[in-house]
Structure of 4-hydroxy-tetrahydrodipicolinate synthase:
Amino acid sequence: MNFGKVLTAMVTPFDHHGNVDFNKTTVLVEYLLANGSDGLVVTGTTGESPTLCVEEKVALWKHVVKTVNGRAPVIAGAGSNSTEASITLANKAENAGVDAVMLVAPYYNKPSQRGMYEHFKTIAASLRIPVMIYNVPGRSVVRIEPQTIIELAKIPNVVSVKEATGDLDSMAEIIQQTDEHFSLYSGDDNLTLPSYVIGANGIISVSAHVIGNEMQEMLTLYEAGKVKEAASLHRKLLPIFNGMFSAPSPTPVKAALKMKGLDTGGVRLPLVSLTVDEEAFIQNLMDGL
């Protein structure tokens, strides 16, 4: 299943008390849809999902689904390291009307490949909507190996994977050994173009909050055979790709959005606001745009 080329891993807007701000969420959704986002991933890593309670996640899903109103796919981050808890959360996401769920690799308890296969298979069996696997060993410690993903892709409603391994060889193996109905998205902004070149469907991006149109332009240039122009734009965007991860995400991108006039509030502990020097660095990047 192809959800589009540029999907934004959406931040969760907070008010000055640290509560989810639904008015700001509406503004953000409209801004993203008007500026290069083909779809939205809600309550993922960038959405500070570890600090959101279940009730907040459900309320966000319902609000975003209502705001989007069918104009773009809405994918809900609904995974955890507990299979039963993931089933409960994923079913709440389905009932909230999302188009798909994204399930992260089980973190902390370090299951085997067979354990991870059974984890995702069991959750998928409880759902009617599509499932995207989220492979992010930098955060979850465990890595879902390509062959495990290839086997999971044979399950009818396991339709996609977000590969945040930074491993182009593994991405190529997955693309080569899954059918055309299974999509692969890079989870690393700096690999947007390289992964697209080897057959990825697109990117689930943090940087798309501020350069979504430019990322769309880069991929369109490549599709049109203007490879040198696409590569040149990639090089120009690279400082932004890397800068959005110059401090724990999503702190830099929330600062960048505020500099663009779109205040999405601060971050929740244990994340903290940028230092003066870190903020100046992000300001310089934004000035360069």
